[in-house]
Write a structure and sequence with these properties.
Layout (H helix, E strand, L loop, with lengths): L5 H5 L14 H15 L23 H13 L3 E2 L6 H4 L1 H6 L10 H11 L19 E2 L16 H11 L9 H7 L4 H10 L3 H24 L9 H14 L2 H15 L2 H11 L5 H16 L5 H6 L2 H20 L10
């Protein structure tokens, strides 16, 4: 496929299966060529062979998707941009409501929902649809558009080996990727950091604080004679992140507001909107910050709960707390109208 290049190795893997298909000569040629490549035994992507498992760095990838992605990039095929700035951003409510589903963009039902939110209602039914209307959703509408590439990241197994070695040092010097790895399996902390990364200007300073806090905590453990290990590195990382939040209260308030919003059930979100509009509005953001203060007073997220990472249980509790808070905050006080 002539894809053994730095550009193609770093190219974003796209959902290249024809989940939403617009018949054309080019579309059928793409499908036929893709099928031929998938059947060609000379083509090696990340497909697991018959004698073992896929390489760790290829976990969750599929051979047909790799072939389709390469072909889409090479031919300039039109495909949905499922990045934060593309179709995901245009259908945020669908993504938030179904955040428990891994790889949402690989399920036809969810792709249809996202498309329904992001595209004009009758677009696929038009005789001559104007693709320029989808410029914010679809890639390769402009000839010669550059291939979207990922940063050249260190593979996870390498990061893991580095982190394990670093923990042996009394003052481990690690980077942001090591901290990300330490909390990668924790749904709660990962969700909170997803909100943090939307605050781009302050995120870099925050991570510097978190890395220093991690080093200080690790040093203290070495001093006590119980050096950290990969078994307790997640708790260590969560604690360091909370230390950094303690030094950036305004940022933490915004992060927690965004995180709590993602925890709301559909009913809780609808009730909040009925009184305060969306959390992104000025009225909604103030109300959410007040609710977060209440949750902090109730200590709804102690470190043990966060380390467990069970966001479904948190979602149920937070939604229930919101209902209670809305009733107390918005029911007018009873006034005594008796004469006596």
């Amino acid at each position: 496929m002539d894809a053994d290049t730095d550009e193609q190795r770093l190219a974003a893997q796209v959902c290249a299966g024809p989940l939403l298909f617009m018949p054309s000569k080019e579309s059928f040629e793409f499908l036929e060529q893709s099928l031929e490549y998938c059947k060609d035994p000379r083509i090696l992507t990340d497909q697991p062979d018959e004698t073992g498992k896929p390489y760790e760095v290829f976990r969750d990838h599929r051979h047909d998707q790799s072939v389709g992605s390469i072909l889409a990039h090479k031919t300039g095929a039109h495909y949905f941009d499922f990045s934060e700035n593309g179709a995901f951003g245009a259908a945020e409510d669908v993504c938030q409501r179904n955040r428990h589903v891994p790889h949402l963009q690989t399920h036809i039902g969810y792709v249809s929902l996202i498309a329904a939110r992001a595209m004009p209602d009758d677009f696929l039914a038009r005789d001559e649809p104007d693709l320029s209307e989808l410029s914010h959703l679809v890639r390769n509408l402009t000839p010669g558009e550059p291939v979207p590439v990922h940063p050249d990241k260190v593979p996870q197994p390498v990061l893991s080996a580095e982190l394990e070695e670093l923990l042996k040092s009394p003052e481990p010097t690690l980077c942001r990727d090591h901290l990300h790895l330490a909390i990668s399996d924790n749904r709660t902390t990962s969700s909170r950091l997803h909100v943090l990364n939307k605050n781009i200007e302050e995120a870099s300073f925050f991570w510097d604080l978190a890395i220093k806090a991690f080093r200080d905590r690790a040093t203290a453990m070495h001093t006590r004679g119980t050096p950290p290990t990969m078994e307790n590195v997640e708790r260590l990382a969560v604690g360091a992140i909370r230390d950094a939040e303690g030094q950036t209260p305004d940022l933490r308030r915004r992060v927690m507001s965004g995180f709590v919003w993602t925890l709301f059930s559909d009913d809780a979100r609808a009730i909040f909107k009925s009184a305060h509009k969306n959390v992104k509005s000025s009225k909604g953001s103030v109300a959410m910050e007040r609710f977060v203060v209440l949750l902090d007073e109730l200590d709804f997220l102690p470190i043990d709960t966060e380390v467990e990472g069970k966001d479904k249980i948190l979602s149920e509790e937070v939604s229930r707390r919101l209902m209670d808070w809305m009733l107390v905050a918005h029911v007018p006080a009873i006034t005594d109208t008796s004469n006596g």
